[in-house]
Structure formats: structure tokens, C-alpha cells
Amino acid sequence: MAQLSRRGLLGATAAVGLLGVAACEGADTQAPTFDPRDWASVRAQFALDPAVAHLSTFVFAPHPAPVRAAIERHRAGFDRDPIGYLHANEAIEEGRVAGAAMRYLGTGADGVAFTDSTTMGLGLLYSGLRLSSGDEVLTTTHDFYATHEALRLRAERDGVAVRQVAVYADPASASVDEIVGKLTAALQPRTRVVAVTWVHSSTGVRMPIREIADALTGRDVLLCVDGVHGFGAVDATPAALGCDFLVSGTHKWLHGPRGTGLIWGSTRGWAGYTPSVPTFDPRGITSWLTAGRVPIPPGPAATPGGYHSFEHRWALAEALQLHDSIGRDRVAGRVRELATRLKDGLAGIGGVTLVTPRDPGLSAGLVCCTVGNLQVDEAVGRLAAAKVVATATPYRTTYLRFGPGIANTEEHVDAAVRAVQGLV
Questions:
Q1: CATH no. for 109-325
Q2: pLDDT band for position 6 (50/70/90)?
Q3: Where in the chain are the domains?
Q4: Are 279 and 296 in contact (CB under 8 A)?
């Protein structure tokens, strides 16, 4: 059966606009020389103010030069001939993004849905899991608002039970045995989903996802992971983690285009999921027009349809390719190196208490601490005045938080340590 594209559905003419396929005048094609083996060259891909130590790019990332250039190229094309540019490029660009995601994730593109953010992905996931009234989702007290609220809304809608458990008492001294032991001890016969976060943005603790997955082996339980602070910072594919779903925004540690994200699902995971937003995958449109049923792979079926900020979504390929060119193992090593340098420096300051584990196996790029009795908001403000950008963790118990990544240098980390020293 022939498939009809979005273009066919909208009744576009066979000819595409010439302006859409022509090279776009004014596009930013100038980029600094890039040597993926040289961290100074990697840093040069970012237009961040060099006089400021930006240690909060994990919240909302700056775009590296290839991503900026791709966004500008697509934006210019859409501005000159929106319909022509869309029809000439949609299938090609979405194929590029799917291929780049497939290579980065180490999986087939059929298992990946594209979203706008981690929050959107979590909302879609937890609303779409096929659960019955009385089934339980087990999560932790350490998870972020987006997970807790998505689960609360699900519970209100159809009676699914949600329960929270603390999996460590002291984040700085948390251990794999403590985390896995407390989580598995909280499982009940009616537990069908375990909803956790890879790296806690509240404390910087990295959950031992592989060990949790192993502990759940043989149980009828899906392991769902908010992966946003591990994705692009830790060298592990979803298959290596052993989870059933991994949800992440790509505009944080990956430095992808702002407003992009994804859901990766295993075969078992997708088998228990029903989409809630119509897809614009051509196979879905064909089924609607012909009253037939054309099979759609689960990832594309779960990708919300409609018009998107295509110039950003299509530039995700460049972000994934940048990380691939550097090497995801080298990226993870760089994040670990800078975070360790920061933790070591902060630990040497009297009056500063590290909240994040020193062990790199139980942490990633996030580093949280307290500075005496100083209020966190005041500390953030005083650091900003010293040209060091940090954040406050948005939880009931709040900490001072840093996150060095590939846009940072050793000098940025050392500047942060000196600035914190000045707060004591």
C-alpha cells in the first residue's frame, strides 16, 4: 500500500519551491576550526562569555557552532519559502536525526520517539503505560517534580497507585548496596513500574541503574528512567543500563538544540505503551486516509505529530554527531575529570560540605554542596558577582549546585573553588 506523507495530506503540489532547495543566503557557515582531540578546540565551539565560568549549562545549554549553523541554515530556508523548504527537506532531515540518534544510542531508530523536553517525555510515558487500577508505580523521594507530578496526574486519572521510597539517608555516603537494597525491599506484588532518575539533580547522586535492572530480573516490572543528567555526560547506552525506558531532553549535557528531547524504549517497554498524541508519521496518515492499518514502529508511533520548531529538531543531528566525533567515552571522561577536580577543591575548604558522593561511580557531572550557614540564594548571587554561574537545587531541601561539562575548562573549575572560598 502506498504511503502518503504530510505533504500529500496537505495537498501540496508535486513541485517544491525553488527557494526551499536553494542555498540559503545569510546562513552562518563560519565556524571555528574543530579538532575533537583538543579540549580547547571543543571549548571554542561555544560562544559563551570567556570572562565568566558558566557552570550551569546543564540547566539550559548553549549551542555549539555546528548546531548554531544548522539552526540558522534551516531558519533561513523556512523564512524564504516555508512550504517548499519543509517539503524538500523533511524526510531527509528527519532521517538524518533518526540515524544520528540510532548511532548514539546504539539501537534501532524504530525504538526512539522524539519530544520537546524531558518533562514532555515523562508526561507522555507515564500517561501511556498500560496499567490498571490498583497497579502500583514505585518511585523515590529524591526524584524531580516532573516525575512526581506526571505520576500524580496518572494516579488522579485512573486510580494507579504511586508510592515513594527513600533509597539513601546521606547522599554523600550513599552506596550501591544501600540504594538497590532499599528500592527492592519496597517492591510489592502489585508493583508494575519502577520510576527512577539516573542522576539526581537534587544531590548529584548517580543511581546504579544497571544493578537495579539486574535486581528486577524475573519480575513483571518495567524500569523507567529520567536520564537527563546522565545523557551526554555518562558513557552508557540504554541497553547497557538495562532499563525499559530512558527519557531525556537533549538540550542539557548533550548541548543539543533547545526544545528537543527523546524517549528510548525497549521492545518489552513499548509493548506496554499506548500513545496519547497522534503521530504525523506517513504510515499513520495513510491508515487514516485509507481506513486501513499500516503498522508503525513504536518510536515513530509515540512521536507527537503536528508542526514543530523544525530548525531546532533537525539540528539535533549535529549535536549528536559532535559528541560522536569527540567520542562519548572521552566526553564522559572529561566530565568526570572536571567534576572530580571541583569536588576535590570544594572538599578542601573549611565550612563547605559536599553533598554529592566523591566516588565517580555514584556521581556524574553535578556537584552539590553547602557553604556554612549561608543561604543558597545568597551564595548563588555572590558567586554571580564573582563571574561564576551556579544554581540552587529546586527542591524542599536546597543546595548550591555546579555542573562542569565540555564547554568548561580547568580554569573555570578553579575559579569556582576560589569564589566559594571567598564565601566562607
A1: 3.40.640.10
A2: very low
A3: 109-325, 328-421
A4: yes
